[in-house]
């Protein structure tokens, strides 16, 4: 390998990326922007959801029951509605997301010691099932609290004990949950490290693939084909600037995650650095392979984005634990570096793990860092067939 | 360098029976090629003739299936063997400056290529200065490549290809789309490089008129080599005479000649006939007898050119120059007899850049008017303003009597427009394309069918009506695009570079149609081109340079004017032509230019200058084999006009400061 030629290729590539506005944006602006957008977007928990009440009872009890919803941070009481029909209309318009219907004789039934059914409508038209389920949980919890209070009152009166004592008697076993690694379940904490994985997976192959296919489209790749540059020199020369950009982005995203969003970093910085270096070699490697299989920038872009988005989000363990994937899904997760890197950064950031626990992931990343550029080397030919 | 080519020795390139297929479709079909050391070899052919495939195979960047290829003594049959000669080859792929890096400056581009080729720093510094000076790019060394003009990009591409001092230079269409002045510069630089020795150049071009630039040429057509040799030799492969006639009515004379001779073309007001295997006297007599019903005004016989020979060779190979019957396809003659197109001081600015500057001209009904100029000269912008696609910044354009700035749909129905890109739907069949355009222009079903039949007959596409457009060769697509532009019987047709990249047969067929359209239907035709041979076919020609019209007259008048101003063109044949050029220049004998092995000099006093040339060469010990006046080419005219304009500008700028 001749280093003069590698340096010439790398320097040319670097200059083009820095001077071309589109490439510059892709390399240096998009990663940080994605981090901000995703972190703020996913940091929002489900609070202040507008809720309407149809109160057919119109009694003191029903009013107090309705107010329980408004008194939490989860719901904002958007008002009382006269009929189910009107409530349905407001739900359809999206003015409210939840409707609670209090039946007639609500108070009378409760006083008489009979049960009363509370009908609850929840907007199911979210793109995933988590928000409606969460809302259902909120409604059930608030109703359960109201029920418990009613029961406690009744028991206290019957047994002649205090309401607190009655509550203890009614709930002998209590669930106490402590969330490890992220005690306050702050989304940003766990999303931050995963975003590092996702953004590098998204940007690096795209930038790399465009870098090669752009030259295929213009014809300047023929300069390489027609010269004595070897295949390895060309690939290394193309890869180097992209690895440098990947490193810069890793530092930037780390600073954003830890410095800006306050994600904890408990593990070894050295391990993290080593893993990141391997990852920013492997990810442009994917781009190299894509670029050698297609001929137009549009195709390269579509393939990179689709692969990166799917692999980065669905098969990396970011949303769905990889253990719950089966068959092809499990396989896809294991032939890309995203899952390994995700496990590694989660371990380093939140669990304070070191090389002793994460060596398998590190080895896998090293393998990918060699495999993708190696595959590109096999695919690249300087004397094309068509 | 003439001698260098004659030195015997192993050829630099030897191809025998080469085949190249793309997915089964052959692009190169058994080509034999021999390029000798020190030679300037031209590969001439239309788009799709197989030039690029051949050159890429020679440069070692494309594999091929059949035949033998040896480059610089190495048999090329694998990626590894190709690698072995790449260090000694300089390859410039097709597409003006496309292999350069737009974001990098001129100097950075050169440096990149040099480092890629491991040129030592000291050698690079010296070579770079020499090449930048030679190409006059030195003042622009810091300018990003994307801001260079076409001619400058071409020269920078040449420097980058030369910076490692290759033995074999392979250039794929380096002159396509470059203005004539830059083109002439390019050839001069190349001649100079070849003269310093050790270099062999293989260059492809789509312009047949560039053939005289080469020591030897190979004519390619549909993947086969039709002829190969010295341009003069190739021209003489088909003996005969070319006869020029003027007769009225021209359309009838044209039809009569077409019936009698296979190779007839209309060049503006003149008809040109190639009479095979005839002396000039015989040819003249045969043409006269064919024109018994329309006695010719003027008949003159001269030497046939390379295109005559090329077309004759293609005919021998079985290709037919189809003579479609004249079909009424155009509009009724415009009433009133006013001008079909009037451009008055048309000007268009794009930001600070003036693309079109004070352009004024007139086109009468039935006239074929040509706008000639390089890429970026402003031709397309003029067309866009006249067709109402673009508003002029100043000035006025009237087409078919209506101001285009206030154009409405009624006006657009009176004009036809065929763009560079042809705007055909390649997934539709031929007939579907025509009926689509008929629908767009609101023709009824019956009218559309009748019209489609007539247009397809005119375009010689009746047998292909159900063929997918994508499967048609370039020439047929072009005629289909013309048919689509004529579907609504326009009075004025605009054609933007209609025949670039089409082979000579296809181009002739196309121009025959234009001729019929203009002469019989009185349709006004405005056509842009950067091909000098095509320009000769127009009735009137406006030369455009840097957004301005430099000259506007019939081609013959343009030539006569230059001859009046600057004198006759003398062709000098001498041993050591490159040495002779230098000698003549030193002795102050005009501005001699090298064309292959011949020298062209513009001379105000031919007799006196001829003897001075002889004396000058004799003093230098160079044998002079002959001096004779030759006709000016359109390129000579263009360059003379542009240079005069530049000098006037420089003088004016100097006078002001």
What is the alpha-carbon Rg of chain A in Å? 29 Å
Strand content of chain B: 25-35%
Tally of helical runs of chain B:
22
What is the number of strand segments of chain A? Answer: 4
CATH architecture of the largest domain in chain B: 3-Layer(aba) Sandwich
Largest sheet of chain A: 4 strands, mixed
List the uncertain runs of chain B: 1-6, 330-335
Which fold name corresponds to the CATH topology of the largest domain in chain B? Rossmann fold
How would you describe this structure to a colleague?
The complex is a heterodimer of chains A (386) and B (657). Chain A is mostly helical and 386 residues long. Chain A has two domains: 3-42 and 186-379, no CATH class; 46-170, abc type-2 transporter like domain (abc type-2 transporter like fold). Chain A has helices spanning 3-19, 21-43, 60-70, 84-93, 106-111, 130-159, 163-170, 187-218, 221-225, 231-260, 269-293, 297-314, 328-334, 337-351, 355-379, and strands spanning 49-55, 75-81, 98-102, 119-122. Chain A has a four-stranded mixed beta sheet, sandwiched between helices. In chain A, β1 (49-55), α3 (60-70) and β2 form a beta-alpha-beta unit. Chain B is of the alpha/beta class. Chain B has four domains: 2-231, Rossmann fold; 239-303, Alpha-Beta Plaits (2-Layer Sandwich), CATH 3.30.70; 335-553, P-loop containing nucleotide triphosphate hydrolases (Rossmann fold); 558-656, Alpha-Beta Plaits (2-Layer Sandwich), CATH 3.30.70. In chain B, β21 (492-496), α17 (504-521) and β22 form a beta-alpha-beta unit. The longest helix of chain B has 23 residues, at 634-656. The radius of gyration of chain B is 25 Å and the shape is globular. Residues 1-6 and 330-335 of chain B have low confidence and may be disordered. Classes of the chains: A mainly alpha (386), B alpha/beta (657). The interface between A and B is medium-sized, with 29 and 35 residues.
What are the salient characteristics of this protein?
heterodimer, A: 386 residues, mainly alpha, abc type-2 transporter like fold, four-stranded mixed sheet, 15 helices, B: 657 residues, alpha/beta, Rossmann fold, Alpha-Beta Plaits, 4 domains, six-stranded mixed sheet, 22 helices, disordered N terminus
């Amino acid at each position: 390998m001749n280093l003069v030629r590698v340096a010439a290729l790398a320097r040319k590539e670097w200059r083009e990326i820095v001077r071309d506005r589109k490439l510059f944006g892709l390399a240096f602006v998009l990663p940080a922007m994605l981090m901000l957008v995703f972190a703020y977007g996913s940091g929002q928990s489900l609070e202040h959801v507008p809720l309407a009440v149809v109160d057919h009872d119109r009694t003191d009890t029903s009013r107090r029951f309705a107010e329980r919803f408004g008194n939490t941070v989860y719901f904002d009481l958007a008002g009382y509605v006269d009929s189910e029909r009107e409530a349905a209309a407001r739900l359809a318009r999206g003015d409210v997301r939840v409707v609670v219907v209090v039946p007639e004789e609500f108070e009378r039934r409760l006083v008489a010691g009979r049960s009363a059914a509370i009908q609850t409508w929840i907007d199911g038209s979210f793109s995933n099932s988590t928000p409606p389920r969460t809302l259902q949980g909120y409604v059930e919890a608030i109703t359960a609290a109201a029920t418990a209070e009613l029961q406690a009152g009744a028991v206290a009166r019957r047994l002649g004990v205090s309401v607190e004592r009655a509550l203890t008697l009614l709930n002998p076993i209590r669930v106490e949950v402590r969330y490890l690694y992220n005690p306050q379940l702050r989304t940003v904490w766990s999303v931050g490290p995963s975003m590092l994985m996702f953004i590098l997976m998204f940007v690096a192959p795209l930038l790399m693939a465009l870098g090669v296919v752009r030259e295929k489209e213009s014809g300047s790749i023929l300069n390489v084909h027609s010269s004595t540059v070897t295949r390895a020199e060309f690939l290394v020369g193309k890869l180097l600037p992209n690895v440098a950009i990947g490193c810069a982005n890793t530092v930037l995203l780390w600073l954003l995650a830890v410095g800006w969003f306050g994600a904890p970093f408990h593990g070894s910085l050295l391990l993290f650095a080593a893993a990141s270096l391997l990852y920013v070699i492997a990810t442009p490697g994917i781009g190299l392979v894509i670029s050698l299989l297609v001929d137009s920038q549009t195709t390269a872009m579509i393939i990179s984005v689709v692969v990166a988005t799917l692999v980065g989000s669905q098969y990396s363990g970011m949303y769905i634990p990889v253990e719950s994937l089966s068959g092809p899904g499990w396989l896809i997760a294991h032939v890309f570096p995203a899952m390994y890197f995700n496990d590694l950064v989660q371990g380093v950031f939140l669990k304070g793990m070191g090389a002793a626990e994460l060596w398998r992931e590190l080895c896998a990343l090293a393998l990918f860092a060699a495999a993708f550029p190696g595959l590109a080397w096999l695919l690249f030919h300087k004397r094309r067939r068509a | 360098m003439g001698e260098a080519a004659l030195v015997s020795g192993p050829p630099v390139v030897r191809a025998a029976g080469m085949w190249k297929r793309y997915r089964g479709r052959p692009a190169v079909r058994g080509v034999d090629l021999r390029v000798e050391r020190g030679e300037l070899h031209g590969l001439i052919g239309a788009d799709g003739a197989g030039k690029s495939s051949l050159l890429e195979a020679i440069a070692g960047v494309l594999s091929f299936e059949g035949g033998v290829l040896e480059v610089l003594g190495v048999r090329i049959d694998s990626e590894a063997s190709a690698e072995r000669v790449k260090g000694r080859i300089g390859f410039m792929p097709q597409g003006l400056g496309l292999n350069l890096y737009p974001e990098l400056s001129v100097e950075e581009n050169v440096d990149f290529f040099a480092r890629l080729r491991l040129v030592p720093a000291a050698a690079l510094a010296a070579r770079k200065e020499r090449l930048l000076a030679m190409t006059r790019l030195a003042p622009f060394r810091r300018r990003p490549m994307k801001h260079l003009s076409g001619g400058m990009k071409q020269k920078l591409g040449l420097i980058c290809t030369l910076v490692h001092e290759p033995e074999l230079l392979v250039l794929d269409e380096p002159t396509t789309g470059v203005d004539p002045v830059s083109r002439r510069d390019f050839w001069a630089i190349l001649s100079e490089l070849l003269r310093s020795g050790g270099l062999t150049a293989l260059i492809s071009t789509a312009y047949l008129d560039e053939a005289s630039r080469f020591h030897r040429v190979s004519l390619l057509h549909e993947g086969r080599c039709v002829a190969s040799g010295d341009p003069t030799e190739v021209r003489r492969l088909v003996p005969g005479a070319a006869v020029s006639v003027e007769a009225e009515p021209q359309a009838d004379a044209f039809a009569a000649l077409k019936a009698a001779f296979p190779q007839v073309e209309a060049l503006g007001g003149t008809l040109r006939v190639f009479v095979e295997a005839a002396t000039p006297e015989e040819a003249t007599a045969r043409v006269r007898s064919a024109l018994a019903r329309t006695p010719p005004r003027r008949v003159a016989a001269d030497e046939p050119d390379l295109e005559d020979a090329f077309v004759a060779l293609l005919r021998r190979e079985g290709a037919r120059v189809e003579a479609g019957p004249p079909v009424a396809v155009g509009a009724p003659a415009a009433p009133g007899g006013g001008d079909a197109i009037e451009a008055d001081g048309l000007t268009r600015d794009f930001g600070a850049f003036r693309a079109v500057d004070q352009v004024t001209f007139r086109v009468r009904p039935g006239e074929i008017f040509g706008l000639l100029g390089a890429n970026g000269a402003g031709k397309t912008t003029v067309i866009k303003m006249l067709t109402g696609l673009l508003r002029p910044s100043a000035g006025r354009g009237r087409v078919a009597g209506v101001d285009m700035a206030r154009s409405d749909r009624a006006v657009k129905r009176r004009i036809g427009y065929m763009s560079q890109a042809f705007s055909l739907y390649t997934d539709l069949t031929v007939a579907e394309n025509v009926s689509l355009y008929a629908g767009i222009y609101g023709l009824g079903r019956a009218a559309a069918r009748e019209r489609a039949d007539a247009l397809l007959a005119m375009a010689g596409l009746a047998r292909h009506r159900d063929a997918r457009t994508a499967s048609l060769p370039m020439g047929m697509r072009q005629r289909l695009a013309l048919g689509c532009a004529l579907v609504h019987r326009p009075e004025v047709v605009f054609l933007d570079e209609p025949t670039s990249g089409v082979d000579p047969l296809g181009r002739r067929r196309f121009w025959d149609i234009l001729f019929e359209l203009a002469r019989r239907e009185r349709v006004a035709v405005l056509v842009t081109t950067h091909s000098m041979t095509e320009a000769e076919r127009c009735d009137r020609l406006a030369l455009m340079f840097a957004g301005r019209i430099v000259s506007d007259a019939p081609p013959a008048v343009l030539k006569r004017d230059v001859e009046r101003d600057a004198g006759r063109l003398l062709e000098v044949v001498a041993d050591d032509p490159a040495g002779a050029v230098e000698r003549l220049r030193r002795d102050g004998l005009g501005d001699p230019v090298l064309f292959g092995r011949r020298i062209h000099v513009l001379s105000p006093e031919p007799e006196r200058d001829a003897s001075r040339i002889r004396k000058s060469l004799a003093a230098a010990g160079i044998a002079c084999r002959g001096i004779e006046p030759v006709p000016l080419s359109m390129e000579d005219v263009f360059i003379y006009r542009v240079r005069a304009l530049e000098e006037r500008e420089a003088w004016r700028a100097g006078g002001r400061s």
